[in-house]
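Private note to self, pasted from the team thread so I don't lose it. Backbone tokens:
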């Protein structure tokens, strides 16, 4: 009977703990798996939640839109690594793209073919105040891959 009381009390306490919205999930540093690959960015955690972009970076947090998890492995890792680059280098988009490409090439998850597929997915991205359009970004990323 005492076990039943404890179980009931524990269940009541859990009901009081705020739960994240079903569409968002916080993943602690070092615990993120992307297509079977453990993706880490030092002490930075990751939030999976719908946002108005494919991914974003804030101090100490990477945010990935849930649709990233449906992309091919190299693209999942590219977007995560791109946002990790912002944690290291700051807001520059070209630097984040180039570092992500370099890391992908170095680690073996970004081949020339995969870069081409990434380019096809980004080709029609519009530019904005901080991002070049998709075609310009891809031309710069090709240069980074070749370096």
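Design output:
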């Amino acid at each position: 009977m005492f076990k039943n009381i404890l179980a009931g009390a524990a269940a009541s306490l859990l009901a009081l703990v705020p739960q994240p919205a079903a569409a968002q999930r916080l993943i602690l540093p070092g615990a993120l798996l992307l297509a079977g690959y453990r993706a880490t960015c030092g002490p930075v955690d990751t939030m999976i939640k719908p946002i108005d972009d494919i991914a974003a970076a804030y101090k100490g947090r990477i945010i990935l839109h849930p649709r990233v998890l449906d992309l091919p492995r190299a693209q999942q890792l590219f977007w995560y690594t791109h946002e990790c680059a912002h944690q290291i280098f700051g807001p520059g988009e070209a630097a984040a793209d180039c570092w992500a490409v370099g890391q992908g090439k170095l680690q073996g998850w970004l081949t020339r073919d995969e870069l081409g597929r990434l380019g096809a997915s980004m080709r029609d991205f519009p530019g904005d105040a901080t991002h070049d359009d998709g075609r310009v970004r891809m031309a710069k990323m090709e240069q980074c891959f070749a370096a």
